[in-house]
């Protein structure tokens, strides 16, 4: 495992030879792409990449290696590899977008030796833009050579110069030369192809003895074929700086026109190309727009300098060398009041709209939506944007200052902001949660200032020899306190916030635990017996006699309170929430006894709250864990203390292999906060799930006649109003349908308990009191606040409607 550009990446077989003639290894290929990345990535950015892979190497002249083209991104690709779909006759294919070093290194790791791209890029909304360059592929036929290609290139340069296009030559690393000319984006791919075709015809007409634009191979002998067709929107060309899958490791190398005059002109090896990059030789430098100019294209397209007082500079400003990046937060009274957070980066202001402003404390997170980058001149802009113009309304500066950046990635930004106004000094994290580029969704989190935090002790510090020594560091928890205990005195469990891998890695000294896909249970061990309480405080002791009756596991302690998850196991020993449904509702002894055999369970422990009369909630998690492992050694199955993971990626892979929900990442120095949902614990899921209140039934038809077709669902707002979030009709088996209907019939009511139900969904609905809580999995939230593609997972009797939070 290596870290590249803030990403963890597994690399293998670095000494595997990919070019037998030269002995060039995969490790050297990865090193090459890393060396040329500063010049290559701007040329690849936002373009779909078709790869040519030689998994076993390029082979030899006597035994060539097998190669294949790959368009669709592999299933095993890292989740952080950006991808966008392109429609094909057989359906959409997701293509990788190589716009950062980790992705480029991953390409080399899987032996994607050649990277081919079209002449167009994706726009911020995933739309296909017009081409930003024109290409001519000068391919020598039999009897022609590279010198003749250079001669034809000079002829093409003269014609292109007459129409205002100044081309850059690239020796392809294979046989011929590519010519690239910059376009302004106003021409379509078809129009660019027409220009290239006419140029090829003109050269063929004037020089029929050395050049042809005809596709037929039979007429290419002794001539250079001018391939104009690669401007077609469906065609690709080897990217400049890409390696070639030839017998020797050559690369597509941008060249100067002086070099093309050299009679000894040849293709360059990858070491030579990398050395040129490191020496600063870049023939594309004047050809390519600066990254800032490219980034501001969307901003300029949305504004007319003659109609808005906003700055619309023709050329980008230059950041002061060595100075701290600047930021501005603007209060924007547009169609809706919101705040705009802008941070200086790579010559522009990367910008987010934050509807509710910067959170006041670490306990709150705020939605942030990325907008188009703005010019640096916007740091001081305030004024009235006229009606009818983009972003019309009043703009004022709320705060401005500098940022000490700790991390800047395409999905995570962390820094300490020092402002002159109401923000003051704040350590903020922006974590991308959905989408990419403009309109992507982010989470804005105010972090605890590291300078104000005490250093965490080393992980897994030894427990005190006597647990009673913990009293010196622990604050007693009153089990009858309303915030920490239920009405019958059972302690309330600590809860996790929803998070992302980026936010989890920002925790201090974190570890990861598997999220076991069961129900939460606090266990109280006293007088040789274990009592179990669900998260709601309900006593569920009788439902799990294998944990609580005679012959149940024994703890080597006089008294203890443990926290854990009860899970059901399927025939292969994997946790199954569906199977747990068979047991979690049972109350009759005979039914429970039968299911003990049919549906075995386990109690997975992850925390220890009290031990022999001593409150441990104030101790660091790492110390509680040490005591828990000692306690767990005294208990037999089905009580289990599962291992923790230092590596988040490994935990996620294990969870995915077990087909579970995800993981919970915890700050190892955190205290236990009963009844509190804390950012010290973050749950990260493979698929999104949401707890919902059942508020209505739509009658079933066909094979569901007599049960129901779907359930109408709600989620409470901050003020307790139950808001409609859609309906679910899949994920039920016959037993679930019958059982749910029996539970819902007594709750029938004539009153609609939901706000915002569309008329078609309400037309034949049968309303019920929203007392039952269930869980669904879904793909995403829609723009109108509904669940997209929900699927039923099961009832959550351990939850109440008041417990529901938006995930």
From TrEMBL:
PROSITE patterns, per the entry: DNA_LIGASE_A3
Pfam families: DNA_ligase_A_C, DNA_ligase_A_M, LigD_N, LigD_Prim-Pol
Residue numbers spanned by region Disordered: 448-502
InterPro entries for the chain: DNA_ligase_ATP-dep_C, DNA_ligase_ATP-dep_cent, LigD_ligase_dom, LigD_PE_domain, LigD_pol_dom, MtLigD_Pol-like, NA-bd_OB-fold, NHEJ_LigD
Residue spans of biased composition, Low complexity class: 455-479
Any one of the GO BP annotations: DNA repair
Catalytic activities: ATP + (deoxyribonucleotide)n-3'-hydroxyl + 5'-phospho-(deoxyribonucleotide)m = (deoxyribonucleotide)n+m + AMP + diphosphate
Keyword Nuclease: yes
Enzyme class: ligase
Cofactor (UniProt): Mn(2+)
SUPFAM superfamilies xref list: DNA ligase/mRNA capping enzyme, catalytic domain, Nucleic acid-binding proteins
Family assignment from sequence similarity: In the N-terminal section; belongs to the LigD polymerase family.
NCBIfam families on file: LigD_PE_dom (TIGR02777), ligD_pol (TIGR02778), NHEJ_ligase_lig (TIGR02779), PRK09632.1 (NF007210)
Name assigned to this protein: DNA ligase (ATP)
């Amino acid at each position: 495992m290596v870290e590249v550009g803030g990403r963890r990446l597994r690399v293998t077989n670095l000494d595997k030879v990919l070019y037998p003639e030269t002995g060039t290894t995969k490790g050297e290929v990865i090193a090459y792409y890393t060396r040329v990345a500063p010049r290559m990535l701007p040329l690849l950015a936002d373009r779909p990449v078709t790869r040519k892979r030689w998994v076993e190497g390029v082979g030899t002249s006597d035994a060539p290696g097998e190669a294949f083209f790959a368009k669709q991104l592999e299933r095993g690709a890292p989740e952080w590899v950006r991808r966008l779909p392109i429609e094909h006759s057989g359906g959409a294919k997701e293509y990788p977008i190589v716009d950062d070093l980790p992705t480029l290194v991953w390409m080399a790791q899987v032996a994607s030796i050649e990277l081919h791209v079209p002449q167009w890029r994706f726009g911020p909304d995933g739309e296909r833009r017009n081409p930003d360059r024109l290409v001519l592929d000068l391919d020598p036929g039999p009897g022609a050579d590279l010198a003749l290609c250079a001669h034809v290139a000079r002829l093409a340069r003269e014609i292109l110069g007459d129409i205002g296009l100044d081309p850059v030559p690239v020796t392809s690393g294979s046989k011929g030369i590519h010519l690239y000319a910059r376009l302004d984006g106003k021409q379509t791919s078809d129009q660019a192809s027409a220009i290239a075709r006419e140029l090829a015809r003109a050269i063929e007409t004037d020089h029929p003895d050395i050049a042809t634009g005809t596709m037929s191979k039979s007429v290419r002998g002794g001539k250079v074929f001018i391939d104009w067709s690669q401007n077609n929107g469906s065609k690709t060309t080897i990217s400049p700086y890409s390696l070639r899958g030839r017998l020797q490791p050559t690369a597509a190398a941008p060249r100067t026109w002086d070099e093309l005059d050299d009679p000894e002109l040849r293709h360059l090896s990858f070491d030579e190309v990398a050395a040129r990059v490191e020496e600063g030789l870049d023939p594309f430098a004047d050809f390519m727009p600066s990254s800032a100019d490219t980034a501001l294209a969307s901003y300029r397209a949305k504004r007319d300098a003659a109609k808005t007082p906003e700055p619309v500079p023709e050329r980008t400003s230059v950041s002061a060398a060595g100075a701290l990046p600047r930021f501005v937060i603007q209060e924007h009274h547009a169609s809706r009041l919101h705040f705009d957070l802008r941070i200086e980066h790579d010559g522009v202001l990367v910008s987010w709209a934050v509807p509710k402003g910067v959170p006041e404390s670490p306990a709150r997170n705020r939605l942030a939506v990325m907008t188009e980058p703005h010019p640096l001149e916007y740091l001081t802009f305030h004024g009235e944007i006229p009606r009818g113009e983009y972003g019309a309304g009043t703009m004022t500066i709320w705060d401005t200052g500098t940022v000490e950046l700790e991390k800047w990635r395409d999905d995570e930004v962390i820094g300490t902001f020092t402002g002159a106004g109401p923000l003051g000094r704040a350590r903020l994290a922006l974590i991308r949660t959905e989408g990419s580029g403009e309109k992507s969704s982010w989470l804005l989190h105010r972090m605890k200032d590291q300078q104000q935090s005490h250093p965490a002790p080393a992980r897994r510090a030894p427990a005190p020899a006597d647990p009673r020594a913990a009293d010196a560091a622990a604050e007693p928890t009153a089990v009858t306190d309303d915030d920490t205990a239920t009405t019958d005195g059972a302690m309330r469990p600590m809860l996790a916030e929803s998070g992302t891998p980026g936010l989890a890695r920002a925790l201090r000294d974190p570890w990861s635990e598997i999220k076991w896909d069961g129900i939460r249970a606090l266990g109280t061990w006293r007088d040789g017996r274990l009592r179990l309480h669900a998260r709601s405080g309900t006593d569920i002791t009788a439902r799990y006699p294998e944990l609580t009756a005679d012959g149940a596991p024994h703890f080597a302690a006089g008294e203890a309170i443990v926290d854990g998850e009860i899970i059901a196991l399927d025939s292969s020993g994997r946790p199954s929430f569906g199977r747990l449904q068979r047991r979690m509702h049972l109350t009759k002894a005979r039914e429970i006894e039968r299911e003990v055999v049919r549906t075995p369970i386990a109690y997975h422990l992850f925390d220890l709250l009290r031990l022999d009369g001593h409150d441990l909630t104030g101790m660091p998690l790492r110390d509680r864990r040490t005591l828990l492992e000692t306690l767990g050694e005294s208990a037999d199955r089905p009580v289990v203390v599962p291992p923790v993971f230092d590596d988040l990626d490994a935990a996620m892979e294990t969870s995915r292999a077990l087909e579970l929900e995800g993981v919970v990442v915890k700050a190892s120095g955190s205290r236990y906060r009963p009844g509190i949902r804390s950012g010290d614990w973050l749950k990260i899921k493979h698929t999104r799930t949401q707890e919902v209140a059942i508020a209505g039934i739509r009658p079933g038809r066909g094979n569901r006649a007599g049960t129901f077709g779907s359930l109408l669902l709600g989620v409470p707002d901050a003020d307790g109003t139950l808001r409609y979030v859609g309906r679910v009709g899949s994920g039920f088996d016959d037993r679930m349908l019958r059982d749910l209907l029996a539970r819902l019939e007594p709750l029938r009511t004539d009153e609609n308990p939901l706000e915002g139900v569309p008329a078609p969904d309400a037309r034949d609905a049968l309303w019920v009191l929203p007392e039952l809580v269930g869980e669904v999995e879904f793909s995403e939230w829609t723009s109108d606040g509904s669940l997209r593609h929900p699927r039923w997972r099961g009832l959550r009797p351990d939850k109440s409607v008041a417990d529901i939070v938006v995930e």
